[in-house]
Structure formats: C-alpha cells, structure tokens
Amino acid sequence: xxxxxxxxxxxxxxxxxxxxxxxxxxxxxxxxxxxxxxxxxxxxxxxxxxxxxxxxxxxxxxxxxxxxxxxxxxxxxxxxxxxxxxxxxxxxxxxxxxxxxxxxxxxxxxxxxxxxxxxxxxxxxxxxxxxxxxxxxxxxxxxxxxxxxxxxxxxxxxxxxxxxxxxxxxxxxxxxxxxxxxxxxxxxxxxxxxxxxxxxxxxxxxxxxxxxxxxxxxxxxxxxxxxx
Amino acid sequence: xxxxxxxxxxxxxxxxxxxxxxxxxxxxxxxxxxxxxxxxxxxxxxxxxxxxxxxxxxxxxxxxxxxxxxxxxxxxxxxxxxxxxxxxxxxxxxxxxxxxxxxxxxxxxxxxxxxxxxxxxxxxxxxxxxxxxxxxxxxxxxxxxxxxxxxxxxxxxxxxxxxxxxxxxxxxxxxxxxxxxxxxxxxxxxxxxxxxxxxxxxxxxxxxxxxxxxxxxxxxxxxxxxxx
DNA sequence: GCAAAATGATAGTAACACTATTACATTTGC
DNA sequence: GCAAATGTAATAGTGTTACTATCATTTTGC
Lengths: 228, 228
What we know:
- The first copy, chain A, contains twelve helices and no strands.
- In chain A, helix 2 crosses helix 3, helix 5 packs across helix 7 and helix 6 runs antiparallel to helix 10.
- Chain A is mainly alpha-helical.
- At the A-B interface, helix 8, helix 9, helix 10, helix 11 and helix 12 of A face helix 8, helix 9, helix 10, helix 11 and helix 12 of B.
- The structure holds a DNA duplex (30 and 30 nucleotides).
C-alpha cells in the first residue's frame, strides 16, 4: 500500500511545489481542501484565501507549499495521471493479448471514476471532475513551454507512451499511435463534460456508458481489430 | 460579399456584447486589436487596459462594447464557428456524395487555417491560434450553463449538427454522430497544440498534414467507408 | 530540553476587473 | 442647420486578488 503511494508521488516533479505537501498533515489538508473547494467553485473563483479559510490555515502558509494556484492545479493533474498510469498497469499486468490490454487501458481512461479509498487525502471522484473541467488550463497557456521544460507533463507523456506501445504491438506499422491515444484521453474528458453541460454536442445513452463504448469501438475500427 | 459578412455576424448572439462591435470602426479595431494582442500574450495576461493602449482608446470605452474579457473571447470564438460553418457550406454545396461531403467538412475543420482577406478586421490565422489555445476556456468554466442558456454556443452546435447529419446520411443507424464530430473538432485543436508544444503526445509528419490525414482515416474507418 | 523548522497572524503592495461621472466630439433625424 | 442621440475620452475610484514580508508562536527532531 505504502509503495503505491510513494510510487505515485515519486512521479510528481519536485519543481511543481515549493514544499512537498505529502510530508505534513497540513500539506495533505491543502490537497483535500483544494479538491473539495475547486470542484465546488471552479478554478477561476478558487483563491488561496478561500482555501485557507476552508482548511483553517492562512494564505501565507499555502504560499509556502505552492507558488500559485496554477501550480497547485498542475500538481493535482500530475497526481491524477500517475494514478491513472498505475491503474492501467494493474489492468494490463499478466494479460498476454495486446488487444485485450489496449481495451482495458481504454476502459480505464474513459470510464467514470469511482472512489479508491487508498488515499485518504484524495477524493478521486472530485479530482476526476476537476481534471475534466480544468486540466486543459494546465497546459493550454503561455507557460506551457517553460513548464514542459521543467518536466511537469512527464506522467502524462508516460501514460500516452505506454498505451501507444500497446497500439504498436497490435500494428507495428500504424502511423499515429500517440495521436490516437491522446485523442481518446482528451476526447473522453470532452465528451463527459459535454454530456453534463452541452448535451447537443454528444450522444448519451441512458443505459450503459456510451462514452467508453464509443472510444473502444473507435479504436477497434481504426486498428481493424475484430469487434468482439 | 457583404451578405457573407452579415450572415456570419447574424449568428452571433446579441447577449455576448453590450454594443455591437461591427457597427463602428472602433468596434472593429477592438476585434482586430484583441486578435493580435491575445494571440501574442495569451488570455490570462490579456487585459482591457493593455488592449486600449494598443488601439489608442481607453479601458472604459472597451467596457461599453464588452462586459469582460471572457465575453470578448466568447464573441471571437462564436465568430470563428460561424465562419467555419460557412466554409463547410461552401465546400459541400452541389456535392451529391455524402462521403465526399463529409470528407470535405473534416478537411475544413482540421486543416491549417489560411488568411481569408474577406474581413479586414479579422486575421483568421491568429484567430485560429486563439481558438486552438484558448477556446476551451469559453465553455470549460462555471459560467457554462448560464452562457449556454443565453445561446452563446449555438453556432458551435449548428456546426456539429450539420456534420452529424451527413454522418447519418452515410449510416442512418450509426449511434454516435455528434460524439464523432465533436471529437474530431476538439481533437484537431488538441493535436495542433500538442504538435507545437508537446510533440511527444502526437505524431508529426514533416511532409503533408498528418492531422487532417489522421482524422479523415479515423472517421472513414469508424463509418466503414472504403479508403480512396 | 533546546535548536530548527513549521505555522499562524497581520500587514502591506501592486495589479486587475469593473463602475461611475463628466466632458467633449460626431453623427443623425427632421 | 440645429437639437438630440450616440460615440469617445479622461479621470477617478472600489473591491478583489496575487503575492511578499515580518515576526510571534507552536511543533518537531534529536
């Protein structure tokens, strides 16, 4: 259990925080408080003042952990990618068929998230909502090249790389493995967001999870895998 | 020519502005100035003060046209969708084959934008960059439901609807037409952004435009259209 | 039990979003 | 051609936010 925690945490780039939030109970309260508050009021309205009030601390203290709210969001997003990477790992280990492994990975990254209960300071369901609504703001900004140089997006890249490698196992000549995988990941977020707020941009199916269904079908057709 | 201009402008919801920027030269200067400045410094650093300095006006004057920078970005995004809708219309009119029409639409929405020169106050290339980098911020926020009620996303929905209808012409039983189209639109933006800033998340091909190529292939495989 | 580190309390600065007011210039209706 | 309407500019001001600095107090490691 502890290994998993340090495994996920170790993938988080040290430059994203000023002081590692996992080294203190206050740090963990910052994380859980942020996840709750930001999922409630959104990134734009979220401030360190509101957060410090919510967790009974002070603004200045939070600035000791994170330079600004952008990096705090980046931290949470990195954590999410590492967690997802681990989830994909568990869902593919000991499976021989690359087709089946890829399907499991696609389900893992497109299915609705449920509570994990392994990390008491992380509410995965709310974190998933934050990632769906806010995560593009982490990289779709002028800071992206600097943050990329600092290695902030490594866990995301590793996740895409791992899935792309399975794609290449299925078809070594396939030209767009990374493109396909990142389209599925980002697309799944978009579709979940549209389903909730802009339903005319998507197709919702009351029974079953049409989002996972759609992306599995899309990838299978693209790679000409027989639909089971 | 003028008809096209009013056609595109008429699709822009009146609630998004306080005073129609197309009714004065200053209004048009606001639009062109915003497109230049925002594509240079990004949405976060963009302020009405900087804009007014750039176009030799004052902050207060700009507030007479737009309530805030969020609505100004929304205006530009709406304009972009209307323009793209018009482009798709021109590229599909008088073509019988729905397969060919769909292919043209996908090219239109995924290809790199070139200068149109029909609108002297709009630099389509820079506007496209803004849409790629910033447009998700228009709807991925807490205001989304209110703005949606006010009809801000109608031109986007119409674009998706028009393309989805072609998909249904090809396969009336296809279950996810809107999902497929909105995945292509958003996906194309993501891939262009990744290609420039996070190349490890995509696959770039020096010759040719692999992004259009990828999405055409994806849709054809999904709808089981024979690759030409 | 003491030194070092973490936290809290408080204050302050600069920038920004946004509003209000007034004055003056330009256009338009008739 | 003149009054009314509209457009533009200049200025000031408010409240909020991002962020820093300082110092007192508490907690922790050894």
